[in-house]
Design a protein that fits this description.
Structural class: mainly alpha
Largest sheet: none
Radius of gyration: 77 Å
Mean pLDDT: 77
Low-confidence stretches: 1-9
Distance between the termini: 194 Å
Number of helices: 6
Helix content: over 70%
């Protein structure tokens, strides 16, 4: 119907155009008419295509609208069902949940009360057992501690005695060493003192006293610690005695020990001890000469 309505104006246009151009050449008219008809056919095809496309778009729109309506109806029914379900759940929750909670609370309370009594009983038993174990362990600990204290005291006593003995020995050794050094220094001091006194007696020509002083020097030197100084000092005394005897012999001086018998014996003892000590073995001959001189006086 729509195609006919569209074709009617075209047909009317063609009829009008034919009447107005009757005077034009028939061949020319025919060509123009054919050309117009061809163009009209083209336009008709284009219009038909547009109509088909419009129908397809129309059908598409209809389908989309139907789908939208169905979706809207589905969501509306689903939403109503959801609201009804929420209302039912809320109703059931408001009724059942409080009842369930109360029942559970009563049940748990009974259980807690029963468990509390059992727990108190278990705690009392555990406390008694723990106290008993604690007392037993404390007694064992005291016994072990006393044994360890006794062993430690014994070890400390042994260690203390041992260390005390070591310390006592060290102190004794140090004291002995100090005493030896002190005794050595005292004898050297007396040696120097008698050596000076002998020089004074020689200057005063008191030769017997000088010999006695050198004898005293030997006595104190032989009490010192043997070392290089001892050898040098003994050699010094021997040379001085030998020089003194030479002076007395050359000058013919009479040496009389009658008033110094004790000193004479001490001098001879010191010289004989020096002779047997091997302090100056190379000087034994000179020492013997000095002994012979003193014995003959």
């Amino acid at each position: 119907m729509k195609k006919l309505i569209l074709l009617f104006p075209l047909f009317f246009f063609l009829m009008t155009s034919a009447q107005e151009k009757k005077e034009i050449n028939t061949d020319t008219k025919t060509e123009n008419i054919e050309k117009q008809i061809f163009d009209l056919q083209k336009q008709i095809k284009v219009l038909e295509q547009q109509l088909n496309e419009n129908k397809e778009v129309e059908n598409t729109y209809k389908n989309d609208i139907e789908i939208i309506e169905k979706v809207e109806d589905f969501y509306e029914r689903s939403w109503n069902k959801l609201i009804n379900l929420i209302g039912w759940v809320a109703t059931m929750t408001g009724i059942i949940v409080p009842i369930s909670i109360g029942w559970l609370q009563n049940r748990n309370f009974d259980r807690l009360e029963t468990n509390g009594e059992k727990l108190q009983k278990q705690l009392k038993e555990s406390s008694d057992n723990f106290q008993k174990q604690l007392d037993d362990n404390y007694k064992i600990f005291q016994e072990q501690l006393e044994i360890k204290i006794t062993n430690t005291e014994q070890k400390l006593m042994v260690l203390s005695n041992r260390e005390y003995s070591k310390l006592e020995q060290q102190v004794s050794n140090n004291v002995m060493k100090m005493n030896e050094e002190l005794y050595n220094e005292i004898n050297y001091s007396k040696f120097f003192s008698f050596a000076i006194q002998a020089e004074i007696n020689i200057n005063n020509k008191e030769y017997v006293k000088a010999i006695n002083c050198y004898g005293a020097c030997l006595i104190h030197l032989l009490k010192t610690i043997p070392d290089e100084n001892l050898t040098k000092n003994v050699l010094f005394v021997i040379k001085n005695l030998e020089s003194l005897i030479t002076i007395v012999s050359e000058e013919g001086i009479n040496v009389d020990f009658s008033s110094y018998k004790k000193h004479k014996e001490d001098d001879l003892d010191a010289l004989k001890k020096l002779l047997t000590s091997n302090i100056l073995p190379e000087e034994n001959e000179r020492i013997q000469k000095i002994i012979n001189f003193i014995e003959n006086c």
